[in-house]
């Protein structure tokens, strides 16, 4: 199955470079290019993209707003957004994860990292290293004033709906552990861990593991630590 990729970046040179890289792979193709967020949302629908490589800073509708639009559209529930950023420790990156992005990738990453990220996102799995995402969220949330953020008021009730085991798994996911590592710690099978993760995602309204990590930190279930 060919992964349909949409490129959203206001720099034509970067889009051209990404297109050459993506189109060189036999299992993926670029189905469109957008220079702003509004065009990205429109083309995502028209071209039935599977993965959107989304720049944050674009004129007009930026990548953050576009990510929210895509995540809020029921017809685009299977679309995965990968945020491309120049600065990996970036307030907007965490806001994008909250808005529904699957994860982030620095623009200085190696070509193989980008291609691997597309495949992982298309498969609905955790994007890149969970530990990397965990570190970013922890550093960001540790500096935030709880009174100033946009937390979901209904999240606490949904967190209470988790079973003891699901909460335990959520804490370990937020710690950057893979399913195999969690299975070893809890002495269960990786399939059992995957089931708990999927149930936690369903109950918390999370699209993927990245959003589970955000929820674990924002809810206070896991406390951020700054190095």
Provide the fold topology:
Layout: E1 3-8, H1 12-23, E2 28-34, H2 37-47, E3 51-55, H3 63-72, E4 80-85, H4 91-99, E5 103-106, H5 111-122, H6 130-141, H7 155-160, H8 164-174, H9 179-186, H10 190-204, H11 209-218
Helix pairs in contact: 2-3, 3-4, 6-11, 8-10, 8-11, 9-10, 10-11
Description:
The protein is an alpha/beta fold. The protein contains eleven helices and five strands; from the N terminus they run βαβαβαβαβααααααα. A five-stranded parallel β-sheet has the order 2-1-3-4-5, with helices on both faces. β3, α3 (63-72) and β4 (80-85) form a beta-alpha-beta unit. α8 (164-174) packs across α11 (209-218). The N and C termini lie far apart (42 Å).
Principal-axis shape equals globular
Taking Cα atoms only, what radius of gyration do you get, to the nearest Å?
17 Å
Alpha carbon gap, first and last residue: 42 Å
Order of SSEs: EHEHEHEHEHHHHHHH
In percent, how much strand structure appears in the residues? 5-15%
Widest sheet: strand order? Answer: 2-1-3-4-5
- Number-wise, the strands total 5
Number of H/I helices: 11
Biggest sheet statistics: 5 strands, parallel
Give start-end ranges of low-pLDDT stretches: none
The secondary-structure class comes to alpha/beta
Percent in helix = 40-55%
Mean pLDDT: 83
Quick summary:
The chain is α/β, with parallel strands linked by helices and 227 residues long. The chain has helices at residues 12-23, 37-47, 63-72, 91-99, 111-122, 130-141, 155-160, 164-174, 179-186, 190-204, 209-218, and strands at 3-8, 28-34, 51-55, 80-85, 103-106. Helix 2 runs parallel beside helix 3 (63-72) and helix 3 packs parallel to helix 4 (91-99).
